[in-house]
Amino acid sequence: MISEILIVDDNSDIRNIINDLIIEAGYKTRVAANFNQAIYEIDKKLPDVAIFDVKLDKGDNDGIELLSYLKSKNTDIPVIVISGHANIEMAVKSLKHGAFEFIEKPFDQERLLNFIRRAVENYNLKIENKEYENKLFFSYDLIGESKNITNIKDQIEKISLTESRVIINGPSGTGKELIARKIHKKSKRNNKPFVVINGALLDSDKYELELFGEEKSNGSISFGALEKANKGTLLIDQLSEIPLNIQSKILRVLIDQKFKRLNGNTDINVDVRIICSSSKDLKKEIKIGNFREDLFHRLNVFEINIDPLNNRISDIPLLIKYFSKKISQNYNIKELNIDENDSYILNHDWHGNVRELRNLIERIAILQPDSREKISNIIKESLKTENFNDKITENSLSVPLKEAREKFEKEYLTMQLKKFNGNISKTANFVGMERSALHRKLKGLGIKEFN
Question: Is 160 in a helix, a strand, or coil?
Fold first, then answer.
């Protein structure tokens, strides 16, 4: 598809020069001679790249205002700012507002064309990356054999057959969006839109616009997430971060099954399945007054809780094998030979959870080490953590022998239990103890058994 570039300049001669230059280079163009025309063109259809003059018909900096307006629609669109009254302050201001490049008049045509080519490449790359990430989300599987993951897989199968609203709870990086996408993919809505809105990333004054859309005075319409997800699924990520006044409006939509766009008078009816996710405990947020209890009960028809990765160590070797194969295929390289029982990996805290583990394996794939030793060095450098033996030694130096032995046994056996997902027989076999003896040892050390 040929990229389309929006040119905004109140000087017709410069506008025509830029237009001819871009068309000759093989791109499509649209032009606007003033601020209001530019707004109309942006609302009608977003361009792939834009070129704005700083000074139009409204004032000295209306090109910067136009830049901010376009960025509020889509932050990925590159904007080249041009000015006949350029100074360092103006250049810095435009770049702070998100300009891709700044160029002075009179400009060198080849230099401008070079900026345009780079801007087009930049935008196309971002589009490709988003499409790639979207495909990855749908192609990635929920990997693990821990009880937590096994239960979630079973829940997905059951929930997907219903239209129930769902709240997915879990720390950042555990795979909440992946779970939501799996529910959507297995549901009868699978060929309809899956739309994500992140409550933590929106400006406080943009929530209504992003959710409900807007009817503008010039007759154009900006569609919100609810309409974009019509007939499909809307994931409200980081639900706890949505302000209370917006929570009440979401509740009203759930009750009435309709809403009005901003500045609109017509009721909009949509058929949307809502799935929410949160890294915070919503019940605690209710107690401290940050979240509406009535909205919680409306949304929490079904609840899925995903554990942090360091609570399901038995899943780590499986995830390493899976990501090693998947990422090697994506990079078209030989499958990575990573030791899934590497103590640095098994004993890492994984505050970033599965996302952190996946990023580690992708880093290894990018560097393409040719031996296990080099892979191990990358792991140690990336995780920058002490290994298990180092921790045991440090913890044991300042206590009597008996206490040090008990500490060692408790940490060691707790880790092995997690590694084998609480399976006593497998743990006993690995550590070289009789099953009954291991039971007694765990009880004596105060280690709670789990299944």
Answer: coil
Q: Which CATH superfamily is domain 140-307 in?
A: P-loop containing nucleotide triphosphate hydrolases (3.40.50.300)
Alpha helices by DSSP H, listed for 213-271, are 225-228, 244-256
Q: Are 31 and 1 in contact (CB under 8 A)?
A: no
Q: What is the pLDDT of residue 201?
A: 74
CB 98 within 8 A of CB 9: no
Q: Which two tokens stand for residue 355?
A: 């996302």
Measure the CA–CA gap between 356 and 174, rounded to whole angstroms: 9
Range list for CATH 3.40.50.2300 in the chain: 4-130
Among candidate residues 4, 9, 51, the one with its CA nearest the CA of residue 29: 4
pTM over 0.70: no
Buried-exposed string 138-172: b where 16+ CB fall within 10 A, e elsewhere? eebebbbebebbeebeebbeebbeeeebbbbbbbe
Chain-centroid distance of CA 247 in Å reads 22
pLDDT higher than 50, residue 392? no
Q: Phi, psi at residue 228, to the nearest 5°?
A: -60, -30
Using a pLDDT cut of 90, give the percent of the chain over it. Answer: 41
Q: What is residue 47's predicted lDDT score, i.e. its pLDDT? A: 93
Contact call for residues 410 and 371 (beta carbons, < 8 A):
no
CATH code given to domain 310-385: 1.10.8.60
Instruction: Find, among 191, 293, 278, 292, the residue nearest to 233 by Cα.
Output: 191
Residue count of the chain, please give it: 451
Closest among 47, 20, 21, 46 to 114, alpha carbons compared? 21
CB of 242 within 8 A of CB of 257? no
> DSSP secondary structure string, 228-241?
HTTTSEEEEESGGG
Instruction: Give CA–CA dist 96/100, Å, rounded.
Output: 10
Compute the Cα dihedral for 259, 264, 265, 270 and give only its sign: negative
Main-chain phi, psi angles of 118, to 5 degrees: -65, -40
- Pick the more confident residue, 238 or 433: 238
CATH for the stretch 4-130: 3.40.50.2300
| Whole-number Cα distances in Å, 149 to 144, 169, 320, 375 | 6, 13, 16, 28
